[in-house]
Design brief:
The protein is built from 9 helices and 4 strands, in the order H-H-H-H-H-H-H-E-E-E-H-E-H. It has helices at about 1-10, 15-25, 25-40, 60-70, 80-90, 95-100, 120-135, 205-215, 235-240, and strands at about 140-155, 175-185, 195-200, 220-225.
Length: about 240
């Protein structure tokens, strides 16, 4: 910004001394940037490239580290650690850590996946993705799932409330009140969740929850439900509904 002011004030007829006084610079510094602008125009107002400290690690060393990490296993191990990679490459651990971050390498982690055996998997994926990429007009899409075997527990003594100098206190012992099943439907667009708790987890309870959703949705909207392959969801009565 200051260098641009030098050019603007020079255009307005100010001398080097006047510009230097306004900016708190020396006259020679003002003259330097005026001359740079005359010779190189706007590009002259930027700093020139500096040589800096020479690189201590060649591209070939980096490529060898990446290749070794991606294609080989450490001796006696299954995943490369930063310490092992540093020993094998001759680099410092901080350098290996920086390079792993730069290339988004996480050899200590793994992620599981599962391939579907459903012969209609592709068609189902297209139906679901299509609802998001090309949502129908006057329709509501809900993701429906249930959580069974939720334990209804209660403490044997009242909870001691939080106070100054001590935390909330609860007894270690509790009383079981059986289990319940939570049915829930998430409206992804609004974040609203419709829920019901049922004592059992059968197709009858699932149908009851579907009827509850049907009543909760405005009459003018078509309802699209996304569910998993749980047996309850494939019951003939559920499919008929």
């Amino acid at each position: 910004m200051a260098r641009a002011k030098v050019v603007l004030w020079s255009e307005q007829g100010l001398s080097n001394t006047e510009i230097a006084t306004r900016l708190g610079w020396r006259n020679a510094t003002v003259g330097k940037w005026r001359q740079r602008f005359v010779q190189h125009r706007l590009a002259g107002l930027y700093d020139e490239l500096r040589s800096g400290r020479p690189r201590s690690i060649a591209d070939e060393q980096i490529a060898a580290l990446l290749k070794r990490t991606l294609t080989r296993k450490p001796k006696g191990g299954t995943h490369w650690s930063i310490r092992q990679a540093a020993q094998a490459s001759g680099m410092s651990r901080s350098t290996v850590h920086r390079l792993f971050n730069l290339f988004a390498l996480q050899p200590h982690r793994s992620r599981s996946f599962k391939l579907s055996t459903d012969p209609f998997f592709v068609e189902k994926v297209r139906d679901i993705v299509g609802l998001y990429l090309n949502p129908p007009d006057h329709a509501l899409v809900l993701c429906v799932d249930e959580k069974s075997q939720i334990q209804a527990l209660n403490r044997t003594q009242p909870v001691l409330p939080l106070g100054l100098g001590y935390v909330e206190g609860i007894t270690h012992d509790y009383v079981r009140h059986g289990t319940t099943t939570l049915f829930a439907a998430l409206d992804v667009a609004s974040g609203v969740v419709l829920t019901e708790c049922k004592p059992r987890h059968r197709h009858q309870e699932f149908l009851s929850f579907l009827r509850y959703l049907d009543e909760a949705v405005p009459p003018g909207l078509d309802l699209h439900l996304i569910v998993d392959n749980y047996a309850t969801h494939k019951h003939p009565k559920v499919r008929t509904w």
